[in-house]
Design goal:
The chain is α/β, with parallel strands linked by helices. It has 13 helices and twelve strands. α3 (53-63) packs antiparallel against α10 (283-294). 45% of the residues are buried. Bound molecules: pyridoxal-5'-phosphate.
Length: 401
Amino acid sequence: MSGSEFLIPCADRVANLPAYVFATVFRMKEEALAAGREVIDLGVGNPDGRAPDNIIAALNRTLHDDSWNCHSYGTFKGLLQLREAIAAWYQGRFNVSWDPESEILPLIGSKEGLANLMRAYLNAGDTVIIPSPCYPAYFGAARLCEAEIFEPALTEDRDFVLDLDTIADDVADRARMLILNYPHNPTGGVCDLAFLEKAVAWCRDHRILLVSDIAYSELGFSSDAPPASVFQVPGAREVAVEFQSLSKSHNMAGWRVGFAVGGPEVIANLGRLKSNVDFSVFGGIQMAAVEALTGSQQICADNRTLYQHRRDLMVAGYRELGWNVPSPPATMYIWARIPAAWGNDDFAFITEVFEKSGVLLSPGSGFGVHGRGYVRTSLVIDDARIGRVMDLLKDSNLDWD
Ligand SMILES: Cc1ncc(COP(=O)(O)O)c(C=O)c1O
């Protein structure tokens, strides 16, 4: 029977998932590599650095620690030690207090937590407001809940800060959830506390769960105004939940560790759902996360300096080509309108750039309908390779205006 088709159809919710835009991009890359071509991938937001030695040592210590067995099943709620470390980190970073017993939940990466939160709070047919462009995983998670997605635009003229006044009352009244992500993937946009205050008041008025994703909170480049937590806004506890990740701040993307904070009810509901799905984060990684949050935070400062430096190099290089890209205030991305010759067709643009140079960018339409006509560059290569990218792009003789 080998080579025959599998006879059992999958559930509609999986069958109906739209084709992943980036799958085509991955295929292009694989084919070029198989053909022996030089490829420089600036598409994926995957940190090229590694976690610092003190974090690796904490994992190693735990693996050999005979005082408890991290190799066996843990607890659904995660280690108290990690929840206490998260509480201390939040207190130090945002001056916000949490009860480690009931208001904090470790996650197998924030992607997992965001998807499971949607499962915990969205019924089929419920409306979720997902401003776009955005982190594409929000869409897949919402579709798996069979939720209706309302997708307001984040625009350059507002520095990609959502304009809540453009959301009609009937949408606001039926919506169950709003997702905000500042600092923002893919645009690098940031918001101020005044915007978060407005968002909390708006969500309170309309009884909407405000989901704040601060995966890039440690990658803001302004020393005057480090990115805020939604919980710095009084009254947020009754409507909000916040997701944090160690992937980008501490170069731990492959380790899979993040956490959610919020009032006891939302954390209990997320925990209840998760207890039916997983067994929390591996103990060794939880102890490494304790070290990441309570030990030296130098890696976060180093990453800010690194990404800001790469941003400057890349922006200068693009501008020298004649492509006038903006310089974002945060994150590890550059988000730019494609040159005029390609109109709104970001996919045609990245395909031609790739064919002529081997440099791979992310097509903006993969980040939602309002990403159309844009591309994202991830700052995940060192200076020498940025120089190489610029040489390859120059030699491509494309029209960058
Ligand atoms: C905005 C945003 N949120 C969440 C995540 C997921 O991060 P994690 O590695 O914690 O799952 C990412 C990853 O790229 C992201 O860009």
